[in-house]
Design goal:
Blueprint lengths: L7 E2 L2 E2 L21 H5 L5 H32 L4 H12 L8 E5 L17 E7 L17 E7 L2 E7 L10 H4 L1 H9 L3 E10 L9 E8 L1 H4 L26 H13 L6 E8 L8 H9 L4 E3 L3 H9 L3 E11 L11 H34 L2
Parallel strand pairs: 3-6, 3-7, 7-11, 8-9, 9-10
Antiparallel strand pairs: 1-2, 4-5, 5-6, 7-10, 8-11
Helix pairs in contact: 3-5, 7-10
Bound molecules: the ligand O=P(O)(O)O[C@@H]1C[C@H](O)[C@@H](CO)O1 and hypoxanthine (HPA).
The ligand O=P(O)(O)O[C@@H]1C[C@H](O)[C@@H](CO)O1 binds next to β7 and α10.
C-alpha cells in the first residue's frame, strides 16, 4: 500500500506553498453599508449622501454606547483605573514609603499569625487594615490579618499583603487581584507571591520550598480569568503573553541564595496550579494534575500573577509545601491545621530567605535603572 501523503487530502494533491497575500474580500459593515455600495454609480447622489450621513451618525452613536457600557461595567465592578488610582492616592497620602516590591503573604507566611513572620518583621512598618482602605475587599478567612503593611525589608521599600483574597471566599477573580493593580499604581515593579501548597511531585517533602517556575491556569481553561471583561490599556494589553510569567533571573538568584543560606536541600523548583477551592482535591483530581505536569497545587497565586504580568510587573513565586497530596484512597486526608502548622514551623527559614531575596531583587532593579 502506498504511504499516505500528508498533503493529499480527499484525493487532491496540493504541494503549492501557502499564498503570501490574502485574497481581497469586500467587507460589509455592521449597518449593512459596504464599500461597494459607496462606489455604486447608479445611486442618486443626494440620497446616497444622506444615507452615508445617517449611517455615520448611527455608527458613532453605537461607538459612544459601547464606550459608555464599557465604562459603566468597569465602574460597576469597582475596578476602573480611576477608582484604583483613588485607592493608591489614599495610601500614598498616608505613608512616606514608596514601595518598589510588593509581597503577598500566603497561608504559611504571616497571614495568620504575627510573631516571627515576614510581614511582622518589616522595619518602620505602617499598617492599613483592609476595611479602612477605600474600594478594598475585606478578608473573610478566619484568622487572616487583613492588612497592608508598608515599610522596609533589608533597606528596600516594600508593601506586603498580610492576608490575600481567595476565589472561594466569594470574590470574583478580578476582585481577588485588585490589590495587585493598586500595588502597580503605588509604583511597585516587582511582585513576590507566596502560597501554601500541596506537593504532587513525589520527590517533594513537607516543609520544602518550591520556586515557582511556571503555572497551569486550570480555572482559565474554563474561561475564568482575572482579565476577563473590558480591557483598560492603561494597565496592559488585551492579549498579554504569559510564557515568561516567572522571572528567570529572579529564579536563578533564588537558587544562588538558597545555596548561600545552606537551605538548597529543601529548595525545589516546579509548576504550580490553582483550583477554586475551598475543598481539598479528590484523589482522581490530584492524579490528573500530576499527569499534566503540576508539582504543587493550591488555591491562589495564578490569577495574581496574570494580573501582575498584564501590567508589566516582574514576578517571583514561592510555594511552601505544607502537605503531601493524597494520591491513594487509604492515606490521611489533607487539612487546614496541618497547612498552618507547617507554615509556623518554617516561618523562621522563610523570613530569612525571603528578606534576603527582597534585598537581592531590589539591588538588581536599581542596577537595571542605572545608565
Ligand atoms: O493563601 P494560600 O494560597 O497560601 O492558602 C492556601 C490555600 C487555602 O487558602 C489554604 C488551605 O489550607 O492554604
Ligand atoms: O493540598 C492542597 N490543595 C490545595 N490547596 C492547598 N493549600 C495547602 N495545601 C493544599
Amino acid at each position: 500500500m502506498a504511504p499516505i501523503n500528508a498533503f493529499e487530502v480527499n484525493g487532491s494533491k496540493d504541494f503549492s506553498p501557502a499564498k503570501k497575500t490574502l485574497p481581497e474580500v469586500e467587507l460589509e459593515n455592521g449597518n449593512g453599508s459596504s464599500a461597494k455600495r459607496q462606489k455604486d454609480k447608479r445611486s442618486p447622489g443626494i440620497f446616497f449622501d444622506i444615507f452615508i450621513d445617517v449611517t455615520r451618525d448611527r455608527q458613532s452613536e453605537k461607538e459612544k454606547e459601547i464606550e459608555r457600557e464599557k465604562g459603566d461595567s468597569l465602574r460597576e465592578r469597582g475596578y476602573s483605573y480611576e477608582t484604583l488610582l483613588e485607592t493608591a492616592n489614599y495610601l500614598l497620602s498616608r505613608t512616606s514609603i514608596r514601595p518598589q516590591i510588593g509581597i503577598i503573604c500566603g497561608s504559611g507566611m504571616g497571614s495568620y499569625w504575627k510573631e516571627g513572620s515576614l510581614a511582622e518583621n518589616i522595619e518602620d512598618a505602617e499598617r492599613f487594615p483592609y476595611e479602612e482602605i477605600p474600594n478594598f475587599p475585606v478578608s473573610t478567612v478566619e484568622g487572616h490579618h487583613g492588612q497592608l503593611v508598608f515599610g522596609k525589608i533589608s533597606g528596600a521599600p516594600v508593601v506586603a499583603m498580610q492576608g490575600r483574597f481567595h476565589y472561594y471566599e466569594g470574590y470574583p477573580l478580578w476582585k481577588c487581584c485588585l490589590p495587585v493593580r493598586v500595588m502597580k499604581l503605588l509604583g511597585v515593579q516587582t511582585l513576590i507571591a507566596t502560597n501554601a501548597a500541596g506537593g504532587l511531585n513525589p520527590e517533594f517533602r513537607v516543609g520544602d520550598l518550591m520556586i515557582v517556575k511556571d503555572h497551569i491556569n486550570m480555572m482559565g481553561f474554563a474561561g475564568n480569568n482575572p482579565l476577563h471583561g473590558p480591557n483598560d490599556e492603561r494597565f496592559g494589553p488585551r492579549f498579554p503573553p504569559m510564557s515568561k510569567a516567572y522571572d528567570y533571573e529572579f529564579r536563578n538568584i533564588a537558587k544562588e541564595v538558597a545555596k548561600e543560606l545552606k537551605i538548597d536541600d529543601i529548595v525545589r523548583e516546579g509548576v504550580y496550579t490553582c483550583l477554586g477551592g475551598p475543598n481539598f482535591e479528590t484523589v482522581a483530581e490530584l492524579n490528573m494534575l500530576k499527569l499534566v505536569g503540576c508539582d504543587a497545587v493550591g488555591m491562589s497565586t495564578v490569577h495574581e500573577v496574570i494580573t501582575a504580568r498584564h501590567c508589566n510587573m516582574k514576578v517571583f513565586g514561592m510555594s511552601l509545601i505544607t502537605n503531601e497530596c493524597v494520591v491513594c484512597y487509604n492515606s490521611d486526608e489533607a487539612n487546614h491545621e496541618e497547612v498552618l502548622d507547617v507554615g509556623r514551623m518554617r516561618q523562621e527559614v522563610l523570613r530569612k530567605y525571603l528578606s534576603t531575596l527582597v534585598k537581592r531583587f531590589a539591588q538588581l532593579s536599581s542596577a537595571e535603572v542605572q545608565p
